[in-house]
């Protein structure tokens, strides 16, 4: 234990507001160089502290957790945040060793150690490096992302900030666990794996999973050089006995090895290729940079996130001890496929439809209204934490496979045979001109009322609106969360602009068509009529000069 002698010199640094610090779908995300400007990070962090101090008075008896996905600028940012936390009077600051904490692990640490909240340093699946992306988000006492009321109050403060408080002290050693007293603050470097691993041990039958691996079951887990490498090595290889080498790209790197740590069919190409080989493993999985997203693959078989959510919901009670007593309900974001809705109906539990972003699930889980939730963007999770959780999703699939002793593909086929299939795809058009894209969506919005009741590729339009949500717990209303066109036959077209990008605008077009019986048709073919209508209604080519999407997931 080292001591710097109090009293500390707290410096008040004058600053001027940056106009662009409004958090998006998941925190504040910008180019790394934007974050590296003098005062930029400090302004935001001081604004977070000012916004939350109001609620609780002072920080002297409070714990703040800090950690990130290991990308470039993670370490200097942590040292800066620690100095601000000391100057703002926090009693304790917990920091993941190496500066690392996955997003779900942050949630676990906040909850298990009764912290006031935490700052996650990540731009998730966006690339890292001095010329790539950086981000920061604040998680509240329940371990989940700050709700809109809080992010809005933070933003208002960033617009009026005149000064921040900091101290001049040397950097602390982030690489060894231990405690440093700085003024009245205890800075504690903690094991980033322990709390998270304990939560997993509580939920899953580790004995059954060890048996699965002992029987010769093979998994390949691609950590994409993000933060999940150490978590997956600890849980899968060390505790569950999966062979060494099960985890690939396991070392967290500042630039993720030059790739996008985005677990989808495009960016996880190496994993996809490995799962297509003749002697492919039984299960392929990948997580994103900060460990909250997951990709699930069987042998030459892709499980869509919507199906994965539905199948985890279907099997949870039978296959996972943590859900033995059943599920209270389920929730999905509006653009996510409706596959889980049909499982909820069969289970006799409610299904909630929320706007995009994990922050909208928090109240439902806190109130005990839902247990499992998910998004089409490769995010699945449950009330064990308040974040989506990539490694948890992999453990869910392992548990289902251990209980059923069949293949990934057969599990999905059986699900389709029982419930029918939601054919689902998302088209992303990245780096559009912001003005053109905003106008394109605005024009379609004005057309919606005239579309209602008309017919589209042979079916009547029953809903044509801009999705609004009233939180059933606290009554908060959130408007304009995505244009949706729903047909009488259950097909849907949803369009919205991304709230996580750092360059230009990204349009997301979500397409869904439900078929009860014909469950093995080509997806492109089944969705083609909807795709055609969507692009035509948007006038995408005329307004934004685009024909082809950047990514299809
Ligand atoms: C995207 C996804 C959304 C997800 C969000 C954060 O937001 O669509 O479902 O919650 O990313 O995920 P948007 O606004 O770009 O569509 V993560 O893994 O970046 O924390
Ligand atoms: Co993420």
Bound molecules: alpha-D-glucose-1-phosphate-6-vanadate, cobalt (II) ion
Total strand segments: 28
Strand order of the largest sheet: 1-9-10-5-4-6-7-3
- CA radius of gyration is 23 Å
Tally of individual helices: 17
Mean pLDDT rating:
95
Strand-residue proportion: 25-35%
Helical/strand content category: alpha/beta
From the N-terminal CA to the C-terminal CA, the straight-line distance is 50 Å
**Shape field:** globular
What is the oligomeric state here? single chain
Features:
binds cobalt (II) ion; binds alpha-D-glucose-1-phosphate-6-vanadate; 25% strand; 34% helix; globular; alpha/beta; 7-stranded antiparallel β-sheet; 8-stranded mixed β-sheet; 553 residues; 28 strands
Can you give a write-up of this model?
- There is one protein chain.
- By secondary structure, the protein is of the alpha/beta class.
- Helices cover 34% and strands 25% of the residues.
- The protein has 17 helices and 28 strands.
- The chain has an 8-stranded mixed sheet with strand order 1-9-10-5-4-6-7-3, with helices on both faces. A 7-stranded antiparallel sheet has the order 21-22-25-26-27-20-28.
- Strand 23 and strand 24 form a beta hairpin.
- Helix 10 crosses helix 13.
- The longest helix has 18 residues.
- The termini are far apart.
- The mean pLDDT is 95.
- The site of alpha-D-glucose-1-phosphate-6-vanadate has 18 residues, from loops.
Question: Could you write a compact summary of the structure shown?
Answer:
By secondary structure, this protein is an alpha/beta fold. The chain has 17 helices and 28 strands.
């Amino acid at each position: 234990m080292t001591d710097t002698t109090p009293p500390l010199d707290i410096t008040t640094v004058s600053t001027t507001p940056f106009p662009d610090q409004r958090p998006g779908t998941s925190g504040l995300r910008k180019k790394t160089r934007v974050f590296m400007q003098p005062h930029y990070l400090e302004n935001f962090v001081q604004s977070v502290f000012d916004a939350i101090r109001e609620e609780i008075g002072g920080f002297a008896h409070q714990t703040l957790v800090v950690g990130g996905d290991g990308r470039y600028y993670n370490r200097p940012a942590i040292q800066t945040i620690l100095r601000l936390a000391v100057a703002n009077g926090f009693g304790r600051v917990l920091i993941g060793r190496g500066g690392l904490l996955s997003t779900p692990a942050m949630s676990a640490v906040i909850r298990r150690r009764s912290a006031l909240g935490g700052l996650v340093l990540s731009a998730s699946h966006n690339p890292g490096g001095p010329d790539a992306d950086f981000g920061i988000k604040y998680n509240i006492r329940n371990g989940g992302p700050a709700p809109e009321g809080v992010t809005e109050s933070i933003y208002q403060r960033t617009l009026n900030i005149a000064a921040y408080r900091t101290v001049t002290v040397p950097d602390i050693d982030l690489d060894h666990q231990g405690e440093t007293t700085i003024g009245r603050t205890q800075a504690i470097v903690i094991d980033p794996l322990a709390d998270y691993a304990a939560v997993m041990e509580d939920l899953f039958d580790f004995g059954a999973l060890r048996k699965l691996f002992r029987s010769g079951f093979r998994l390949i887990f691609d950590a994409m050089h993000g933060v999940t490498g150490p978590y997956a090595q600890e849980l899968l290889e060390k505790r569950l006995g999966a062979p060494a080498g099960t985890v690939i790209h396991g070392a967290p790197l500042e630039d993720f090895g030059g790739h996008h740590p985005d677990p989808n069919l495009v960016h996880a190409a190496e994993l996809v290729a490995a799962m297509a080989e003749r002697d492919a493993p039984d299960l392929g999985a990948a997580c994103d940079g900060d460990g909250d997203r997951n990709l699930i693959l069987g042998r030459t078989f892709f499980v869509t996130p919507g199906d994965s959510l539905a199948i985890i919901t279907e099997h949870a009670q039978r296959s996972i001890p943590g859900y033995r007593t059943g599920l209270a309900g389920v929730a999905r974001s509006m653009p996510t496929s409706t596959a889980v809705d049909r499982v909820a109906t069969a289970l006799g539990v409610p299904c909630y439809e929320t706007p995009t972003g994990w922050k909208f699930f928090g109240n439902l889980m806190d109130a005990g209204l839902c247990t499992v939730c998910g998004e089409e963007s490769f995010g699945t999770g449950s009330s064990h934490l308040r974040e989506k959780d990539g490694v948890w999703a992999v453990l869910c699939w392992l548990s289902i496979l251990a209980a059923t002793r069949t293949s990934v593909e057969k599990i999905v086929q059986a699900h389709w045979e029982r419930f029918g299939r939601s054919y689902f795809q998302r088209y992303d058009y990245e780096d559009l001109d912001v003005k053109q894209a905003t106008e394109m969506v605005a024009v379609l919005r004005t057309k919606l009322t005239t579309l209602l009741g008309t017919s589209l590729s042979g079916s009547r339009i029953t809903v044509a609106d801009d999705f609004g949500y009233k939180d059933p717990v606290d009554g908060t209303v959130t408007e304009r969360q995505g244009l949706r066109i729903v047909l009488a036959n259950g097909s849907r077209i949803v369009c919205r602009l991304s709230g996580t990008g750092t360059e230009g605008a990204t349009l997301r077009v979500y397409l869904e068509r439900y078929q009860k019986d014909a469950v093995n048709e080509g997806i492109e073919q089944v969705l083609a009529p909807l795709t055609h209508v969507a692009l035509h209604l948007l006038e995408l080519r005329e307004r934004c000069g685009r024909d082809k999407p950047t990514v299809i997931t």
